[in-house]
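Propose amino acids for all 364 sites.
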């Protein structure tokens, strides 16, 4: 039995198919974005379809807060249209014979609660589609279509929003265009969202909570930063291994186009984005961009140097390398180094080191 999160989504689901079993038991937060991450075939989309009630052969229990949507023991299965959820697919799936306003009006007419013009105005403003209302669906760009699709899903005033790889069909430029709108959605509405993706970039930028699926089962679930910092999770090793750090811009060095970001374990210099001091940011530090030294480096081009202590060492994807978990004044950093380096420097759990951070991605 899962421990429900007050107002959140509680799942106990089993779906058996030939060659695949989805077996998920988890409780997810009542607001913010839960990224559902995993390799192709791990069950991400199937899980969303079960939550939506589209997989009628799934057994188990699904509840959102105090509302029970499925309970197989009671033979209860609330149909999809009664679940007060919004669903955004990879393809926008707009009604081509309607303009944008018509698509939104249709969703509003299908809402399970009384139509609310104020809600519609807020959604239009939130997603910046006011100038698109009279445009036909086939005249929109890919990014515009997805923003309208999200707005249409919100127009029905759902209690839960499901997004199934909504950026997968977009090129890199369109993805960059729409990501800030999804961030705004996350930050400004008190609504739980399940966001399926296989992109660690999207996880790092959007996720508050991370649910990792592997072969239909939950490999890890928890706050995104904690899950990514865990070295015993085989779904996050490889090129994507790294950590998310929460910090604030302390000061800017305009002469060198750099900003100093303070976080719980120290400070890091990053490329200046023009953001003012005090702004909260996320930093993504990949394990492949962290080296180790047993003495404080001098005359090095690597300017970001943090005192740390090794806490764990595990096998990496290739037998020549290991993944090292570091404690930087209470903050976890990961480093990828060779076994040869570990041996020659006599490194192991408990060893004090300097973590040399070669590159940092800044996420607004």
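Proposal:
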């Amino acid at each position: 039995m899962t421990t429900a999160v007050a107002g959140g989504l509680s799942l106990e689901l089993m779906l058996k198919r030939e060659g695949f079993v989805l077996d998920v038991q988890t409780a997810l937060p009542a607001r913010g974005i839960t990224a559902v991450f995993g390799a192709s075939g791990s069950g991400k989309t199937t899980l969303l379809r079960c939550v939506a009630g589209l997989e009628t052969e799934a057994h188990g229990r699904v509840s959102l807060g105090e509302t029970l949507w499925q309970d197989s023991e009671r033979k209860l299965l609330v149909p999809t249209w009664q679940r007060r959820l919004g669903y955004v697919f990879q393809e926008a799936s707009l009604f081509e014979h309607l303009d944008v306003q018509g698509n939104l009006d249709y969703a509003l007419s299908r809402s399970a609660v009384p139509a609310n013009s104020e809600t519609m105005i807020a959604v239009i403003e939130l997603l910046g589609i006011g100038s698109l209302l009279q445009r036909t669906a086939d005249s929109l760009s890919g990014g515009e279509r997805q923003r309208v699709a999200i707005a249409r899903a919100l127009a029905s005033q759902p209690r839960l929003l499901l997004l199934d790889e909504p950026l997968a069909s977009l090129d890199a430029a369109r993805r960059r265009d729409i990501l800030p709108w999804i961030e705004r959605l996350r930050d400004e509405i008190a609504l739980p969202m399940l966001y399926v993706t296989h992109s660690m970039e999207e996880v790092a930028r959007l996720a508050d909570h991370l649910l990792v699926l592997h072969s239909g089962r939950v490999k890890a679930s928890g706050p995104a930063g904690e899950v990514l910092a865990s070295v015993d999770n085989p779904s996050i090793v490889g090129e994507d291994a790294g950590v998310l750090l929460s910090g604030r811009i302390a000061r800017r060095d305009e002469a060198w186009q750099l900003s100093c970001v303070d976080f719980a374990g120290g400070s890091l210099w990053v490329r200046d984005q023009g953001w003012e001091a005090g702004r909260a940011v996320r930093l993504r530090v990949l394990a492949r961009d962290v080296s180790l030294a047993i003495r404080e480096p001098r005359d090095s081009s690597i300017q970001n140097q943090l005192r740390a202590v090794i806490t764990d060492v595990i096998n990496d994807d290739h037998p020549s390398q290991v993944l090292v978990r570091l404690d930087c004044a209470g903050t976890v950093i990961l480093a990828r180094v060779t076994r040869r380096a570990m041996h020659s420097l006599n490194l192991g759990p408990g060893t004090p080191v300097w973590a040399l951070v070669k590159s940092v991605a800044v996420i607004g």
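The chain has eight helices and 21 strands. Helices lie at 44-52, 100-109, 117-126, 142-155, 172-188, 200-206, 224-229, 339-344.
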